[in-house]
């Protein structure tokens, strides 16, 4: 496993308690992996939004676990990669496809 970016664990160790969470419950490496898939398979700005959506879904119980949510997101990205892009849709690099 790759090491975490410098300062990230320290940030989680400070931020999680401020939000009433245990830092040990934050799957940093898994989140980075999932957001990387989204950033490269959809558009970069979708990565933090997707992480927020996953947190909402887990918190509200609409997915049974963060692992299940991660699997659903990865499957969705894979299905998007298999579809041809329509004019005006974003390519994986974030640029819009020509009409």
Short account of what is shown:
The protein is mainly alpha-helical. It has four helices and no strands.
Question: Can you give a write-up of this model?
Answer:
- It is a single chain.
- The chain is an all-alpha fold and 99 residues long.
- The protein has a domain at 27-82.
- The protein has four helices and no strands.
- Helix 2 packs across helix 3 (46-60), helix 2 (28-41) packs parallel to helix 4 and helix 3 crosses helix 4 (66-82).
- The radius of gyration is 15 Å and the shape is globular.
- The termini are far apart.
- The model has no long low-confidence stretch (mean pLDDT 87).
Largest sheet: none
Helix count from the secondary structure assignment: 4
DSSP strand tally: 0
Helix content: 55-70%
In terms of per-residue confidence, which ranges show pLDDT below 50 for 5 or more consecutive residues?
Answer: none
What's the N-to-C terminus distance? 41 Å
- H/E element sequence: HHHH
Strand content: under 5%
> Whole-number average pLDDT?
87
Shape verdict: globular
Structural class of the helix and strand makeup?
A: mainly alpha
**Radius of gyration, taken over Cα atoms and rounded to an integer in Å:** 15 Å
What is the topological layout?
Elements (H helix, E strand, L loop, with lengths): L7 H11 L9 H14 L4 H15 L5 H17 L17
Features:
99 residues, mainly alpha
């Amino acid at each position: 496993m790759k090491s975490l970016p410098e300062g990230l664990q320290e940030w989680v160790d400070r931020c999680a308690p401020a939000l009433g969470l245990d830092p040990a419950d934050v799957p940093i490496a898994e989140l980075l992996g999932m957001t990387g898939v989204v950033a490269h398979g959809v558009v970069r700005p979708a990565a933090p939004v997707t992480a927020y959506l996953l947190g909402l879904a887990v918190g509200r119980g609409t997915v049974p676990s963060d692992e299940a949510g991660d699997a659903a997101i990865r499957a969705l990205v894979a299905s998007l990669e298999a579809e041809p892009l329509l004019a005006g849709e974003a390519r994986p690099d974030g640029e819009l496809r020509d009409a």
